[in-house]
Amino acid sequence: MYAERASRLSGAVVWTNTPSGPGPGRVLPDGCMDLLWYDGRLLVAGPDTRAHVTGNAQGPWAGVRFYPGTAPALLGVPADALRDRRVDLTDLWPADRARRLTDRVNAAPDPVTGLEEAALSRAADTAPPDPLLGRIVAALDAGRPVAATADALGIGARRLHRRSLAAFGYGPKTLARVLRLQRALALARAGTPLAETAARTGYADQAHLARDVRELAGATYCAGASGANRSTPWPSGSLTTAYRCPQGASQGSRSPLHPAPVSSS
Description:
Elements: E1 2-6, E2 13-17, E3 26-27, E4 33-38, E5 41-45, E6 52-53, E7 61-66, H1 71-75, E8 86-88, H2 95-107, H3 111-124, H4 131-141, H5 146-153, H6 157-168, H7 172-189, H8 194-200, H9 206-217
Antiparallel strand pairs: 1-2, 2-7, 3-6, 4-5, 4-7, 5-8
């Protein structure tokens, strides 16, 4: 069972998840990074460029999901160093520092409370996020082309690319593609027909949308996956996504999840 709520840390979400079914889950790219708790350990989930297939670890998980571009400053690690990775905090921080934070989280009434308090403490000791990063996300999430985004922000394409790598883990074109996929899946979960979903989210046609879902999510557009729909603007990097075949899609594609080769973008 998955549950989440808005964190007291601006833009962040805290969540818990106890896998209830057999087999691995599928985590879709969302532009976010998470600080995770599992079995007394702390890990960091980096930004994904493709679907991350989870293992069969049993028991509860908890996490704090950071708004895109904000985690690197809080954790002291550039996002591109963690791209497509799940890493123990002890591999990123000095051992004594990682142990102190882990002990603090484990001493809290529950892991979510501990993680949220840890994130708030880190934010209090860190400079505020660069507002430019939020403007980049907002522009790309609105469907603005990368070149137009760079021009509007007055930073040039090369600087935009460098800033995006460190903050989001990949270049602005990949970030825009990930954000567009999430917009499309949000419409699909609301029952929007396939053709309308493609048109409203900037895909050339239905085939373009289906191809992007297959490459980024590793599944067919109408795949069904065990999980929960997500209710916040920035979906969790540790939640198995569920999306369903909307009206207007092929009836023949209503089937269990179909794994597919995934490109790294």
